[in-house]
């Protein structure tokens, strides 16, 4: 994907964001999930965890490993992952089905524990959504899509204060895009506007 690329019309005649117009796994994710609101604690913890594991890697790598991530991390049940011990860490570090990075594995467990603790403050879902910005104009090209925002900086800071790890502003902006806090589908993309308007 080059700089400043607009929506791309695929062989099927459908206009998409450039990153969603190539590999069929990316296309399926772009067309059915990216930018749409998810519901529930586990769904939010999954997206947060996967975005953290993606750091420094291609998103396609994460998508291809996603079913195994779900299995390895107990379907992102926060209570179950929060109870992981050193034996579980060793199991995960020996598992080729996920990204074997000790810092990221440790962060995933810490984040599950922090998620459990957040229930006293309304829970992870409402916490994340409290940083939703006002809707913005549709980006025309990839150059118009930011990598951070004031809200993602604030969310990252607040999550770190709440005990979360590996949640920098860029990673949190990617999370915000993925779950519909911001709609960064390009102008002309058939999925533009797919994010729910519900609070």
TrEMBL record:
UniProt superkingdom: Bacteria
Annotated InterPro entries: Adenine_glyco, DNA-3mA_glycosylase, DNA_glycosylase
Binding site for Zn(2+): 17, 30, 185, 189
Keywords: Metal-binding, Zinc
Coiled coil (residue ranges): none
Record carries keyword Transmembrane helix: no
An example Gene Ontology molecular-function term: metal ion binding
GO biological process: base-excision repair
PANTHER family: DNA-3-METHYLADENINE GLYCOSYLASE 1, DNA-3-METHYLADENINE GLYCOSYLASE I
Name recorded for this polypeptide: DNA-3-methyladenine glycosylase I
Native source species: Nocardioides glacieisoli
């Amino acid at each position: 994907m080059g700089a400043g690329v607009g929506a791309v019309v695929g062989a099927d005649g459908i206009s998409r964001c450039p990153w969603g117009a190539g590999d069929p796994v990316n296309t399926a994710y772009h067309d059915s999930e990216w930018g749409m609101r998810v519901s529930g604690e586990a769904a939010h913890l999954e997206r947060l965890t996967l975005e953290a594991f993606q750091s420094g890697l291609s998103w396609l790598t994460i998508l291809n490993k996603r079913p195994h991530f779900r299995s390895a991390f107990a379907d992102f049940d926060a209570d179950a992952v929060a109870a992981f011990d050193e034996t579980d860490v060793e199991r995960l570090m020996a598992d080729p089905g996920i990204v074997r990075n000790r810092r990221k594995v440790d962060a995933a467990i810490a984040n599950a524990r922090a998620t459990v603790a957040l229930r006293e403050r309304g829970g992870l879902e409402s916490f994340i959504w409290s940083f939703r910005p006002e809707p913005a104009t549709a980006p025309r090209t990839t150059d118009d899509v930011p990598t951070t925002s004031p809200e993602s900086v604030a969310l990252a800071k607040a999550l770190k204060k709440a005990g979360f790890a590996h949640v920098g502003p860029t990673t949190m902006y990617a999370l915000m895009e993925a779950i519909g806090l911001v709609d960064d589908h390009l102008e002309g993309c058939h999925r533009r506007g797919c994010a729910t308007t519900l609070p």
